Amino acid sequence: MLDQIKGLHHVTSMAKDARQNNDFFTHKLGLRRVKKTVNFDAPDVYHLYYADELGTPGSVMTYFPFPNIGKGSHGTGEVGTTVYSVPEGTLGYWEKRFAEQGVTGLRRDTVFGENRLAFDGPDGDGFALVEAKNDSRAPWTKGGVPGDEAIRGFHSVSLRLKDGGATEELLKFMGYEEVDTAGNVKRLAVKGGNGADVVDIESLPGVGFANLGAGSVHHVAFAVENRAKQLEVRKALMDTGHQVTPVIDRDYFWAIYFRTPGGVLFEVSTNEPGFDRDEDTAHLGEALKLPSQHAHLRDYLEKNLQPLGD
């Protein structure tokens, strides 16, 4: 069993409208946009990152807004719900805030003994807030949400799978342990992690596969401290038969990717170098930052990318 993985690093999803996406995460959720850049493989499309003040691993939600993308259809083989951690006793604040701001799909429930408020993202994305105990992570407090209520970072993701068995074994190999079961959902967690420690596996054998589109999670990334730890993980995964990409430089972290038995794309990302490598901490996410291979496109992109309306 591996011990290098410390929880979630980021979750990356697809959207249709960049301005709407930016408004939802910065104004409705009160998160900080920590990076405004472009897709490495499609530079005419933004890559937007929303997180806490510094873009701490375990707090980072990222989006590719493709203007012409169709709407995704939910099913198995995908991340079903991305869950944020908020302080105990704050769901009433969030329910009122969301209702006033027109956020849809609001519904309360209790999952594994934790109070939860589910809600829809702008493209029908599945989200929830969970009142988490003893989450000491510092929130971003300049996004319109008071610090006593503000989001601390991720709590968990849920995987919707036809058969969760093989992915469960993979996660256990990656350092996760089963901590609870409720119906068709198994909860796994990594001990001593970064606060974004939990993965739920929902087994849905009778449900068809999801189709990727706006509102779909593209991949979920797990955090390791540095490149040396990442290479240890890559070797161990390859030794057990997984097809893992070479290490890819994503400017703000190094990444490796592999497809899980249940169909979800996993990434393992380094905590280094971080989002302040090309911007001062006080001004994260303000300027358009371009990967070096796309620097020559700056004039074109600044004229043609949709204004975000900051």
UniProtKB/TrEMBL annotation:
The name this protein goes by in its record: Ring-cleaving dioxygenase
Domain Cyclic nucleotide-binding positions: 77-122
InterPro entries for the chain: cNMP-bd_dom, Extradiol_RC_dioxygenase, Glyas_Bleomycin-R_OHBP_Dase, Glyas_Fos-R_dOase_dom, VOC_core
The keyword Oxidoreductase belongs to this UniProt entry's keyword annotation: yes
SUPFAM superfamilies according to UniProt: Glyoxalase/Bleomycin resistance protein/Dihydroxybiphenyl dioxygenase (SSF54593)
Entries under Pfam families matching the protein: Glyoxalase
Molecular function as annotated in GO: dioxygenase activity
Assigned keywords, A-Z: Dioxygenase, Oxidoreductase
Signal peptide region: none
Domain VOC: 7-132, 153-271
Keyword Oxidoreductase among record annotations: yes
Species in which this protein is naturally found: Mesorhizobium zhangyense
